[in-house]
Amino acid sequence: MIAFLIKRIANAMLVMLAVAFFAFMIFRFVGDPVEMMLNEQATQAERADLRAKLGLEDGFLVQFGRFVTNAAQGDFGISYRNQQEVIGLIAERFPATFELVIVATIISLAVGIPLGVVTAIRRGAWYSEALQFLSIIGVSLPSFVVGIVLILVFSVTLGLFPAFGRGETVQIGWWSTGLLTELGRAAILLPAVSLSLFQITLVMRLVRAEMLEVLRADFIKFARARGVPARIVHFRHALRNCLMPVVTMTAMQIGNLIAFALITETVFQWPGMGLLFIQAVTFVDIPVMAAYLCIVSFIFVALNTMVDIAYAVIDPRLRGANG
Question: How far is Cα 90 from Cα 208, in angstroms, rounded to an integer?
Fold first, then answer.
């Protein structure tokens, strides 16, 4: 088990090192930091002083080593646009993105699991076929199209929910949350639904496939032969035995939701990390771009590593199969 843990952690560190190298290359080849941080009236001496202060005269390996060391400590430098520490900007925006992803995940599970069960135990019914057809549409529609339609219908036409922004928020220490206010809960609903639509489809189709497999198992046939009610067979026996892949997929998809929430955040002007990244790209704010890439990659790698370790704990056979 110890060897398995060491191998998984080493793999995660290698992935993060590759991500850090890519982020560092952004600094090297996307514009000159000195030109971006100083105005046009800056003297040559001021430029040379800033270049020395940033360590741009050092060798490639020295600069990369310094970047990795600083990034591991959460130091990504100063934002070119806001003239603030990048990690502070990320910390301000992270609660909004995290809450959006968590609410979207809850919606996807609350909707996707029941729909998957219905389409599995009611195969051939017209509404089961209709749900599967709608799931294909859900996979095919781009999230920005879904977001615009939701705004048009529920904000512009019906006036039920805010069209943009996070609504009213409260501070709990350094964490800002809108889930404790009525306006905040109303504001998060549309972007969360837009972000969760693809996830709902994945959960529904996965639950359906797993349910169909479990319902063919011998213990299910035995339970039915004993006269166990269908409700207990479906929900206590079958559903409980097919939730592990759903939990695994959901944990892995959280990283994807954080990474791709930038489209939803842009459509709804949600003040999260995704919107911050889009603004950074617009203004060529390289430190923010590099920090976003490293942080999102770290979240994704950490979640995948934890899932691998959890699987190895649950099923010892995986330890030998994966070294």
Answer: 38
- SS3 state at 96: helix
User: In the beta sheet, which residues pair with residue 78?
Assistant: 85
Cα 298 to Cα 16: distance, rounded to the nearest angstrom = 7
Helix (H, G, I), strand (E, B) or coil at 175: strand
- What are the helix (H) ranges across 216-227? 218-225
Report the candidate in 167, 170, 198, 202 with the shortest Cα–Cα distance to residue 185.
167
What does CATH list as the number for 87-282?
A: 1.10.3720.10
Instruction: Say if CB 204 and CB 115 are below 8 A apart.
Output: yes
d(CA 298, CA 301): 5
Q: Distance between CA 109 and CA 25 in Å, rounded?
A: 39
pLDDT digits (tens, 9 = 90+) for 260-306: 788 888 899 899 888 888 888 887 778 888 888 888 888 888 888 88
> How large a percentage of the chain has pLDDT more than 70?
89
User: Which residue type does 40 have?
Assistant: E
The Cβ of residue 249 has, within 10 Å, a number of other Cβ atoms equal to: 15
Paired strand residues for 171: 176
Chain Cα centroid distance, residue 300? 8
| DSSP structural state of residue 79 | -
Collapse the DSSP code of 78 into the 3-class scheme (helix H, G, I; strand E, B; otherwise coil) and give the result: strand
The DSSP H or E segment spanning 255 is helix 243-267
pLDDT tens-place string over residues 144-181 = 888 899 999 998 988 888 888 888 888 888 888 888 88
Q: Where are the domains of the chain?
A: 2-72, 87-282
DSSP string covering 207-218, please?
A: HHHHHHHHHTSH
Give me 137's structure tokens. Answer: 């549409």
Q: What is the pTM of this model?
A: 0.80
